[in-house]
């Protein structure tokens, strides 16, 4: 049988295997049931396969399993009943062995896992969320993190990940803002390329490589009102210029899997959009991987979007549009055979989809090396090298928003510090959504980090209040701690923590109370959208009471979306934005507060003054309209902004040549000097403005950035290249074009300021 011979080309092996498969077996390759339901863990850590899994395999096979090692409240997998790294690898091997030995043709299963910011399995490294990664403006660091995530996941048998998230955020009230890299398509695209290169590596069949899945295709971050899965109102030009750019760049980088979005665009659901999945993705971009749906998306065509009158029609619509695999698998499994009998699809359609899935299985090496080494899993998962990467990402992603009077950095040699707030010592609150249960002591909180530096005797702690709710029972303890302290560190914000059964916090004592059921403080994450961006509960009231004491106060935000609190911006001298900084985040924050880390994070999105300004972004069209009666259109903190403990100065901007033909290139050079007394890193940002064009343009658009480290007193020349990619627009025919005319070049520390030069393009 040619398909079993590794010497043959992949195309020959796929062709041979398809000829041998029945219709049921081809349909089986297109379904992806929930993997954690395929087995039951025995007391000794081994597993027993369920009869449902065995039956489904016997009836036609299973192409893929979703979240086999996923651990969280949804799956019901806990630290008590879950699998260790070695046990997980052994379990996946057992499932794979059964599939290959008990299916007629011995086709391996593709194991797909969630890895938004680390493999969502027990003991895997928890990196900062993508919003924090976006704040690092360091794509090389993220490439290394993606390699680490790939190694940890593949070590247990996972061969595909449902990341990176490439949605461009329009409205940060959206609960999944934390999963994105921010509001700018160029910034997102650069991280997209790094993700694909890091996850897939040099060889897809390597034991440290993982199939990257780009999601959510497309426009998912532009939903109406920031509500998850709501309609998207967008023209094709904006779609191509903004939302599709990161996906196109990732496909060009070699991405081989794409996930459809839940939403519709101008009345057409993405899961049944032939324009997106065929005309754009495959024909225009040359994508040669496979397309998978988000969980339950095909069902929505019949019950939600109502573009299909039945499940049979929904399954047929998505397959004909270009979907190759269904996450959850229920609609394809139940209805594709009937759709074939009714003539809604053809066997050629099945061959096309099944062939794409099989091709990736061959390219991943699953037919030739279907099993993993449990000893390697035990060695690599959660290793020290990956922990160090998690710390570095948290450190570089911290954004210093305000520092009046140089209150920061703090002097660790004197004084007592009160660490107060609901996020000061709440491990799950600093991890974000899509996180597995964590062993005790695995997460370094802000309180942990400060205690490590100063010792217990000089650090006072009180939670003060919860994220949500109106209980003020913790106020007296918080005020008592603050009165004894020289400095107050307030750790406020939000939470994307699911109920892991860890219990709650006694506000009066600050002690953890194990109840087996947690009071949920979740106000962010998938499906958790908000109508405002203010702090929830009585957090602001607690801060205001402590502020009356007249002590220096530092606010540290741990959260998944921007916070708009004018009182805090006006009254608190130092404000730090850390987003969800991952398992090492508390240590990184403490080191930043005391000056061991010079903050270098920059905002990947604009923070508004108030929610009424939304949508707000630095690259709005020139025709964005007039100001509001009550406020202007300027953000509180602009895109690209972030302070440092040193001072960077820009000078001698040159553009050579200053006149180029269409298709030509120019070199942009600028001197950047660290004029302060501390070493530090600066993010040098390049913006381009097209001063007159055939279609309306943004006032400015990010087209390049460099993160450079400068010692105190050092000057470095930073160079960018400007060519067609930086100057093009989507023209009247919806095709990229560079038009002649004048372009303004801005290079500086954020989107609002910098040195200015001109570039002329001649036709």
Give an overview in words.
This protein has 763 residues and is α/β, with parallel strands linked by helices. It folds into 3 domains: 22-379, Glycoside hydrolase, family 3, N-terminal domain (TIM Barrel, Alpha-Beta Barrel); 398-613, Glycoside hydrolase family 3 C-terminal domain (Rossmann fold), CATH 3.40.50.1700; 648-762, Sandwich (Immunoglobulin-like), CATH 2.60.40.10. It contains 21 helices and 30 strands. The strands form 9 sheets. A 6-stranded parallel sheet has the order 4-5-6-7-8-11. A 6-stranded mixed sheet has the order 13-20-19-16-14-15, sandwiched between helices. Helix 4 (85-102) runs antiparallel to helix 14 (374-380) and helix 6 (139-155) runs parallel beside helix 7. The chain is globular, with a radius of gyration of 26 Å. The termini are far apart.
Keywords:
globular; Immunoglobulin-like; alpha/beta; six-stranded mixed β-sheet; 21 helices; TIM Barrel; six-stranded parallel β-sheet; Rossmann fold
Determine the mean pLDDT: 96
Number of helices: 21
Rg = 26 Å
Spatial strand order of the main sheet: 4-5-6-7-8-11
Summarize the structure in short.
By secondary structure, the protein is α/β, with parallel strands linked by helices. It is built from 21 helices and 30 strands.
What topology emerges from the helices and strands here?
Blueprint: H1 10-20, H2 23-28, E1 31-32, E2 39-41, E3 47-49, H3 51-60, E4 64-66, H4 85-102, E5 110-113, H5 130-136, H6 139-155, E6 160-161, H7 185-200, E7 211-217, H8 236-252, E8 257-260, E9 264-265, E10 268-269, H9 274-284, E11 290-292, H10 297-302, H11 311-321, E12 326-327, H12 330-341, H13 347-363, H14 374-380, H15 384-397, E13 399-403, E14 417-420, H16 446-454, E15 459-462, H17 475-484, E16 487-493, E17 504-505, E18 512-513, H18 539-547, E19 553-558, H19 566-571, E20 574-577, H20 585-593, E21 648-656, E22 659-661, E23 666-674, E24 680-690, E25 701-710, E26 715-722, H21 724-727, E27 729-730, E28 736-737, E29 741-750, E30 753-762
Parallel strand pairs: 1-12, 4-5, 5-6, 6-7, 7-8, 8-11, 14-15, 14-16, 16-19, 19-20, 22-30
Antiparallel strand pairs: 2-3, 9-10, 13-20, 17-18, 21-23, 23-26, 24-25, 24-29, 27-28, 29-30
Helix pairs in contact: 1-13, 4-14, 5-15, 6-7, 6-14, 6-15, 7-8, 11-12, 15-20, 16-20
């Amino acid at each position: 049988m040619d398909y079993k011979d590794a010497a043959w080309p992949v195309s020959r092996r796929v062709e041979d295997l398809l000829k041998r498969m029945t219709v049921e077996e081809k349909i089986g390759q297109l379904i992806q049931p929930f993997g954690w339901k395929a087995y039951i863990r025995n007391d000794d850590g081994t597993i027993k396969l369920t009869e449902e899994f065995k039956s489904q395999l016997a009836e036609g096979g299973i192409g893929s399993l979703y979240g086999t090692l996923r651990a969280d409240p949804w799956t019901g997998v806990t630290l008590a009943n879950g699998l260790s790294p070695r046990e997980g690898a052994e379990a996946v091997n057992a499932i794979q062995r059964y599939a290959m030995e008990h299916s007629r043709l011995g086709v391996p299963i593709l194991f797909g896992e969630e890895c938004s910011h680390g493999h969502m399995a027990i003991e895997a490294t928890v990196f900062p969320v993508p919003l924090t990664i976006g704040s690092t403006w360091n794509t090389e660091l993220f490439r290394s993190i993606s390699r680490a995530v790939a190694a940890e996941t593949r070590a247990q048998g996972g061969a595909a990940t449902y990341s990176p998230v490439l949605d461009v955020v329009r409205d940060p009230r959206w609960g999944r803002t934390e999963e994105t890299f921010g509001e700018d398509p160029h910034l997102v695209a650069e991280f997209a390329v790094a993700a694909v290169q890091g996850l897939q590596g040099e060889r897809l069949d390597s034991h440290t490589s993982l199939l990257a899945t780009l999601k959510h295709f497309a426009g998912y971050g532009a939903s109406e009102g920031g509500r998850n899965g709501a309609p998207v109102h967008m023209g094709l030009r904006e779609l191509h210029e903004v939302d599709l750019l990161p996906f196109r760049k990732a496909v060009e980088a070699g991405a081989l899997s794409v996930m459809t979005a839940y939403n519709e665009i101008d009345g057409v659901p993405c899961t049944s959009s032939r324009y997106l999945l065929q005309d754009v993705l495959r024909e225009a971009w040359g994508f040669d991987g496979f397309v998978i749906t988000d969980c339950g998306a095909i069902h929505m065509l019949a019950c939600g979007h109502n573009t299909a009158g039945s499940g049979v029609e929904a399954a047929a619509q998505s397959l004909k549009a270009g979907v190759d695999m269904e996450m959850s698998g229920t609609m394809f499994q139940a209805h594709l055979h009937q759709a074939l009998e009714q003539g809604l699809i053809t066997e050629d359609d099945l061959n096309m989809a099944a062939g794409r899935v099989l091709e990736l299985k061959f390219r991943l090496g699953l037919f030739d090396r279907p099993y993993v080494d449990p000893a390697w899993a035990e060695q690599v998962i959660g290793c020290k090298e990956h922990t160090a990467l998690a710390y570095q990402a948290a450190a570089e992603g911290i954004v210093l928003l305000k520092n009046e009077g140089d209150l920061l950095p703090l002097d660790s040699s004197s004084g007592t510090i009160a660490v107060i707030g609901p996020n000061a010592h709440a491990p799950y609150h600093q991890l974000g959504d899509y996180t597995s249960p964590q062993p005790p002591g695995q997460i370094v909180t802000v309180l942990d980090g400060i205690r490590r530096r100063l010792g217990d005797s000089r650090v006072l702690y009180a939670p003060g209040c919860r994220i949500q709710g109106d209980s003020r029972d913790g106020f007296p303890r918080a005020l008592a701690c603050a009165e004894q302290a020289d400095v107050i560190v307030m750790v406020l914000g939000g939470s994307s923590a699911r109920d892991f059964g860890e219990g709650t916090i006694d506000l009066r004592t600050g002690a953890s109370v194990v109840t087996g059921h947690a009071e949920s403080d979740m106000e962010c994450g998938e499906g958790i959208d908000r109508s405002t961006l203010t702090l929830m509960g009585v957090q602001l009231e607690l801060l205001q009471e402590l502020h009356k004491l007249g002590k220096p106060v530092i606010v540290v935000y741990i959260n998944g979306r921007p916070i708009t609190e004018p009182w805090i911006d006006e009254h608190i001298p130092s404000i730090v934005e850390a987003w969800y900084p991952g398992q090492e985040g508390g240590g990184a924050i403490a080191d930043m507060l005391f000056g061991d880390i010079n903050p270098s994070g920059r905002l990947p999105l604009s923070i508004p003054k108030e929610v009424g300004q939304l949508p707000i972004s630095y690259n709005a069209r020139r025709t964005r309209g007039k100001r509001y009666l009550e406020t202007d259109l300027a953000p509180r903190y602009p895109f690209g902004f972030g302070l440092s403990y040193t001072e960077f100065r820009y000078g001698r901007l040159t553009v050579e040549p200053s006149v180029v033909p269409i298709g030509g290139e120019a070199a942009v050079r600028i001197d950047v000097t660290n004029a302060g007394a501390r070493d530090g890193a600066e993010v040098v940002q390049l913006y381009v403005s097209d001063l007159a064009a055939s279609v309306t343009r943004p006032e400015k658009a990010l087209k390049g950035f460099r993160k450079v480290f400068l010692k105190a007193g050092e000057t470095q020349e930073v160079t960018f290249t400007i060519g067609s990619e930086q100057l093009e627009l989507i023209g009247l025919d919806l095709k990229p074009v560079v038009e002649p005319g004048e372009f303004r070049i801005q290079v500086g520390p954020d989107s609002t300021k910098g040195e200015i030069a001109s570039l002329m393009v001649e036709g």
